[in-house]
Amino acid sequence: MHTFIRIVEAGSLSAAAARLNTTQPTVSRRLQSLERLLGLKLVMRTTHVMKLTADGERCYAHARQLLDSWLAIEDDLRGSAREPTGTLRVLVPHAFGQDQMIKPLRDYLLRYPQISVEWMLSDRHPDFMAESIDCAVHVGAVSAPDVVAVLVAEVPRIVIAAPALFDGRDSVSRPQQLGALPWLALSTFYRNEVVLQHESRDERCRIDIQPRFMTDSLYALRNSALAGMGVGVLSAWMARQDIAVGRLLRLMPHWQAAPLPVYLVYPYARYYPAKLRLFLDMMRQVMPALIGTRQPGG
What we know:
Helix content is 36%, strand content 27%. The protein is α+β, with helices and mostly antiparallel strands and 298 residues long. It has three domains: 1-78, Winged helix-like DNA-binding domain superfamily/Winged helix DNA-binding domain (Arc Repressor Mutant, subunit A, Orthogonal Bundle); 86-153 and 261-289, D-Maltodextrin-Binding Protein, domain 2, CATH 3.40.190; 155-259, D-Maltodextrin-Binding Protein, domain 2 (3-Layer(aba) Sandwich), CATH 3.40.190.290. It is elongated and about 80 Å long.
């Protein structure tokens, strides 16, 4: 049943074998054994396509419930007496995953030595079932209707530039003056306009921009700003050290872009294994305190 579930979620026998750390012939034999046991054809296979039969669809629904129920029983009867185990697969944003999240991840692994983590860096929305991903940390809005999304922090964003950009230029004193400067755009969050809000007044300013450089990488945006290529909107945590030592300037310090929400995202399920529950609990606690973030609504 477990192998059959993996076949369905992975989309092919070879992908299921990789998820289960076994061979494709082994997965095929297990599927054939299940079909013989039930006396049903569960999967229709051609050279390029694998499709569940109607019986296969019903079998998957029952198998999913059966496995979740068994895991819940096992966790209830044995969980309190043993260390959590297994491999946790987590999808995290490139910048967060390489920087602030490493320390809490280290603490998690030290506290639970029987757990291992597969740490995947990507800013995309995952296919949890097909990729066997347990959870994701996502920055920005979550639109998928079939997942749990828990808001755990908001990341302040500020306007920055290198001092060299103003060699021979007048400094800016009003947000409207920013539009005349060369701009760097973070394509995942802004392209042709930037909206800034005052930190203490109910006042907003929309700025049309024509980017000289556009990227989907927060690190590339920071490095291009350091090189004096233009003005950009950067997460405050990433700019903090550069501002402190004078490599970057914070422009219009009383103005900032709307903070980006940070969510813990995972699929709906009747049962969540201990390795996932413990990771989610840890991230809820530490995420707002990570450098440059703040409590939602704070």
